[in-house]
């Protein structure tokens, strides 16, 4: 009887032990059968700062290009706690910008972007959302549509002719501030097409539009707190970065408000459709409750920052590179000159960063959600695998038999993005 009463307890203990062993074995088998993630090549990183030290001493696009020569066209860096996927080849860029655009169509969050875009209400810098998609349609139809393109070409022709006349009348053997002249010309074109006239007036705040534009571009590059959430916030306060951001926003907002007020002073319904500019259409959409006042301002901010600064850089380099050429009057050759200048001197060496929304693979490597993805356009334009051994030289003739579109159709050359 004693054995009979003890046996069930012993069997129960043995069963529990056997089941536990089987469970542990099965769990380990599953773990071992699951392949470890295949991460892109990455340089050794330091505690806290990650790979930040690898980017010091050179412009970021040049430092990244040097690293890509060692680690390949796709590599993984860490700045603080944030992972960055660095793309430096046309094939990899195509996967990000076209093949898997639905995964990489968003933007990383940033303190400066949030403030300067009226809490992520723009389309260029803000994370992906349904609201952003709708506003993108508005920008394309109202500012980049066929009607606006015809107006743009007409204004561009007049302003370029005016600039050429100025250069012809300029005294010989005297210096010309090319940057200032091109900035004035591009701003004239963008503002006339988008805003109806060239807003040379200074806002009440006192800063000129050149200063406002330059400061906005600098602030949009981000701060330490974007990468180091803890001590970065403290450091931003100590060095006065937060105050600088608020001043930048105040000046930019005052300038944009001046444009909106100027358009609100007249009766929009009395203006003919042919005379309405981009801002008129935005205000009409706000009257119909399709856009808020902040939406209108955020879209104007995109035109102001994106339409002027990068265009000036590209134009300046094109002229500088060929200032002594004798045959620039030949239009076909001039097109090659412009393409070559854009290849070597992209207006934005690193495109606005993208952010992955889900797990995917690029080039056979695993990319996880929340990874900031940077396309090194400057490096792609100097890749000898694409452009030959003379990739670093200014040689417009390379485009004689090379069909490459600088507008983003070919991923070998992405001065303005692609996809």
TrEMBL record:
This is Uncharacterized protein. It comes from Smallanthus sonchifolius.
């Amino acid at each position: 009887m004693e054995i009979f009463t003890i046996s069930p307890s012993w069997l129960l203990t043995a069963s529990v032990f056997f089941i536990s062993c089987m469970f542990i074995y099965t769990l380990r088998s599953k773990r071992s059968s699951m392949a470890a993630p295949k991460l892109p090549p990455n340089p050794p990183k330091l505690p806290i700062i990650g790979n930040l030290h690898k980017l010091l001493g050179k412009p970021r696009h040049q430092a990244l290009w040097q690293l890509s020569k060692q680690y390949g066209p796709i590599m993984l860096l860490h700045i603080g706690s944030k992972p960055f996927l660095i793309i430096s080849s046309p094939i990899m860029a195509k996967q990000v910008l076209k093949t898997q655009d639905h995964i990489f169509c968003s933007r990383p969050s940033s303190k400066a972007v949030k403030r300067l875009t009226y809490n992520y209400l723009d389309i260029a810098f803000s994370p992906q959302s349904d609201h952003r998609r709708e506003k993108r349609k508005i920008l394309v139809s109202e500012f980049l549509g066929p009607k606006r393109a015809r107006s743009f070409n007409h204004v561009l022709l007049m302003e370029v002719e005016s600039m050429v006349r100025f250069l012809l009348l300029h005294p010989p053997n005297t210096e010309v501030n090319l940057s200032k002249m091109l900035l004035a010309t591009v701003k004239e074109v963008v503002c006339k097409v988008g805003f109806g006239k060239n807003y040379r007036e200074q806002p009440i705040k006192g800063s000129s539009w050149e200063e406002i534009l330059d400061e906005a571009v600098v602030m949009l590059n981000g701060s330490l707190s974007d990468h180091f959430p803890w001590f970065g916030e403290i450091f931003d306060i100590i060095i006065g970065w937060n105050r600088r951001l608020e001043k930048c926003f105040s000046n930019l907002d005052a300038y944009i408000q001046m444009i909106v007020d100027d358009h609100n002073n007249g009766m929009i319904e009395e203006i003919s459709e042919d005379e309405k500019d981009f801002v008129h259409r935005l205000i009409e959409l706000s009257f119909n409750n399709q856009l808020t006042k902040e939406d209108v301002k955020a879209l104007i901010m995109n035109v102001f920052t994106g339409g002027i600064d990068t265009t000036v850089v590209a134009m300046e380099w094109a002229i500088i590179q060929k200032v002594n050429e004798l045959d620039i009057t030949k239009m076909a050759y001039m097109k090659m000159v412009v393409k070559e200048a854009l290849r070597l001197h992209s207006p934005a060496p690193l495109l606005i960063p993208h952010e992955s929304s889900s797990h995917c693979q690029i080039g056979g490597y695993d990319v996880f959600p929340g990874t900031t993805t940077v396309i090194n356009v400057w490096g792609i334009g100097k890749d000898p695998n694409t452009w030959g051994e003379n990739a670093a030289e200014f040689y417009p003739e390379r485009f004689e038999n090379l069909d490459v579109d600088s507008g983003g159709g070919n991923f070998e050359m992405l001065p303005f993005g692609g996809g």
